[in-house]
Amino acid sequence: MAGGSRESGRSVTSRVLAILEAFEQSRTALSLTQIAEGSGLPLSTTHRLVAELTDWGFLSRGANGRYQLGIRLWELAQNAGRQLRDAARPFVQDLFSLTGETSQLAVREGHEVLYIERIYGTKRVPRASRVGGRLPMHATAVGKVILAYEEEWVRTAYLNRQLERSTAHTHIVPGRLAEELDQIREQGYATTLEEVRLGSCSIAVPVFHTGRIGAGLGLVLLTSQAGTMTRHLPALRGVSAQIERATAHIPLESLLGSHAARKT
Amino acid sequence: MAGGSRESGRSVTSRVLAILEAFEQSRTALSLTQIAEGSGLPLSTTHRLVAELTDWGFLSRGANGRYQLGIRLWELAQNAGRQLRDAARPFVQDLFSLTGETSQLAVREGHEVLYIERIYGTKRVPRASRVGGRLPMHATAVGKVILAYEEEWVRTAYLNRQLERSTAHTHIVPGRLAEELDQIREQGYATTLEEVRLGSCSIAVPVFHTGRIGAGLGLVLLTSQAGTMTRHLPALRGVSAQIERATAHIPLESLLGSHAARKT
DNA sequence: CTACCGCTTCCACTGAGTGGAAACCAAAAG
DNA sequence: CTTTTGGTTTCCACTCAGTGGAAGCGGTAG
């Protein structure tokens, strides 16, 4: 058919998934009408699909009548990339024990870093990310370290975009950022200083997998600790090596990869 | 393909969800044919739906051509019950710091406990559960403590089923179990001794929410520590109280509830 | 009371979904 | 080399599941 836009919400599957994704934006529970708006579907269609999703436990309905993502979905999704996360978790925990600081492990997903593991220190560091959350690469230490070791074309592709500024300290000049990445590669670690949130700084080292960069392992600290950040490098490097060893046998091409731009 | 009385996949939605759930059993990546078998769908249908799910990142295809649940799904699902988990996590971590033992938080999902948070101790306790995993209620301390404080009809319904035996020490006699539950209620905590895995024991206290039992908070220890388990009770109770306070305002009817028996 | 808003139900129409079959591809067997 | 085997991908005519406008329902505000 000579429709206007490309196949957007044509198939039933796409409608179902659009409904699920509608919950990604708002952190609060959604009413049926809101879901319909968020997914761009007519109300009655939304109603029917939502009902079925609820039956299966993929959505759940609160007392107020609003919907949320169901625990069933969460439970099922725990199996995604489980090998990797199970293998890495104990080591991230070790890192936390060794340093006492907020410890995190992140991978690249498209143009952002996705945090797959995180242990919060007792000190109240301004929290910018969470497990399952994303942040731009150029503002975070884990992101920078991944970018620094990433293949050439990824790096250039990234730098050719408009880089958003999170705080006044975020580095967004492509030229200077490129230099910084080179330096990171030389010294083997990346740092940030209040580039994503005021009050916190971070440091990260690469985690390799099959020769390529696989993930970033890092710490978040209070800005006041910035001067002594590097004393954690031995711990970071040691744990990174352990993670590399423990995950070497796991095929994670499937985890990363694709991130093919999908139609909104 | 045997018989045709399979009343399963009527709607497209159900087919899609069946495909996703096919991944719950096997921890390894699945081939297209395996998915078709696991979900009970014809191959060509499976092929089409799987392709679309892959486009959206809900499934991902490994180098070997096999499929896995996609990280996109995991990321999205992190939003399910996030309020609750985010609120509880730091306290579970506190519990771990205080005790140094494997700490866990679980809720009831149907006739099983679902672990929503868990921090592994350094000591190598036989691991029976994981975050996102389930275990029968009568074999675990968190399960027993939840059951003990659960409404009458839930308890009786549970005891009227055939209780499976995990180890030789699992209590499966309904009468004796009922007595045990009464006692748990009296003393305010539950324990197990090698009832789910040989070599480990556990202790748990209730976490209340809006008057009703909401979750179970527990520790897993080596059997050798069984004698001194109760010394952790103050920590458990203290943390439990903190969790109760921190989650009091969160509506979690939506999280629990339903677990309506669905067609297999 | 009426107006409004959001949820639920209904149902005639139709094109998206279906799945058997055949083509395809790669690797193992002859 | 050819044949076989096992899984994956493509094709396409049929039809039934999905659709969505509209009407009905129920609670709340004015």
Automatic annotation (TrEMBL), chains A, B:
Pfam family, one: IclR_C
Keywords: DNA-binding, Transcription, Transcription regulation
Signal peptide interval: none
HTH iclR-type domain span: 10-71
InterPro entries, per database record: GAF-like_dom_sf, HTH_MetabolicPath_Reg, Tscrpt_reg_IclR_C, Tscrpt_reg_IclR_N, WH-like_DNA-bd_sf, WH_DNA-bd_sf
Keyword Acyltransferase: no
Annotated IclR-ED domain residues: 72-249
Keyword Endoplasmic reticulum applies: no
SMART domains for this protein: HTH_ICLR
Protein name: IclR family transcriptional regulator
Organism: Arthrobacter sulfonylureivorans
